[in-house]
Specification:
Elements lengths: L1 H12 L2 H12 L3 H26 L8 H17 L3 H14 L3 H29 L1 H10 L4 H22 L5 H22 L3 H20 L13 H16 L7 H11 L5 H33 L4
Helix pairs in contact: 2-13, 3-4, 3-10, 3-13, 4-5, 4-13, 5-6, 6-7, 6-8, 6-9, 6-11, 11-12, 12-13
Membrane topology: Multi-pass membrane protein
Keywords: Cell membrane, Membrane, Transmembrane, Transmembrane helix
Pfam families: LPG_synthase_TM
Amino acid sequence: MLGVFLIWYSLSSATPSEREELWNNILVADLKWVMLSLFFGILAHMSRAYRWKFLLEPMGYQPKFANSFMAVMGGYLANLGVPRSGEVLRGATISTYEDIPFDKAFGTIVSERIADLIMLLLIVIAGLLIQTEGLLTYFETQNINPFISVGTIFVAILLGVIFLKLVKRSKHPFMVKIRNFARGLLEGMKSILKMERKKAFLFHTLFIWVMYLLMFYVIKFTIPETIPLSIAGIMAAFIVGSFAISTTNGGIGVYPLAMGAVLLLFGINQQAGEAFGWIVWGSQTILVIILGGFSLLFLPVFNQKK
């Protein structure tokens, strides 16, 4: 609902000429760059599905790539409705079709997210080194502290682990059930330490984020006003966009507004900046809706012989 309100507020607060300029920028977008961006996005999603097997292998599971990919895309689709619900759906999906215990599957997803948080933090640091003033100005005006946001997630994970350690000592039936679930969860999380192909996991982690950057970067060529945008501006906008997506249900309503605000600091007028945001967010969201919807429909068909 917040996202829908922000979309309404953004459009209603603009003047008729500003809305017309925003719409024209979207209409004249060069589609070949949008298609290239979608291609990079698909490669990132495929790499994420393939990377998952490196965490499941140490526990003796060999899921089919098709099931892993469709579980990933179904999870992304769920995240558009309820933030972070996709991780639960993804774990439940692979558990259903590959006979992998949910607790262990979900534990590997947590480990994945920790690796991705580290990558995002490294990108934030690189962005601050490249464009300190622009990023700090944006974060200050929006009352955002990226390090506190990332740190809060790490602290939450740490507290969760401590809670599970305390549960381990209880003999209450309900606590015993939690303890059994926690054991599987921790086993899944520890799989990142037991991997035989750590270099392959690292390669795919880097590849995923390079693809994310590329699918974002090429969109600058879709609108004449954003073509001169520097690497520093791209990095700053990418970081802001990553936080917009991670803190909402897929960035709906927030993402274009965030792009318009941050690109304004780099000499891009607000309508062009928001158009840039709409093209990035809209194209990738449509991709997720199509692939995610198809995945959820096709999963039972693909696995009907089981």
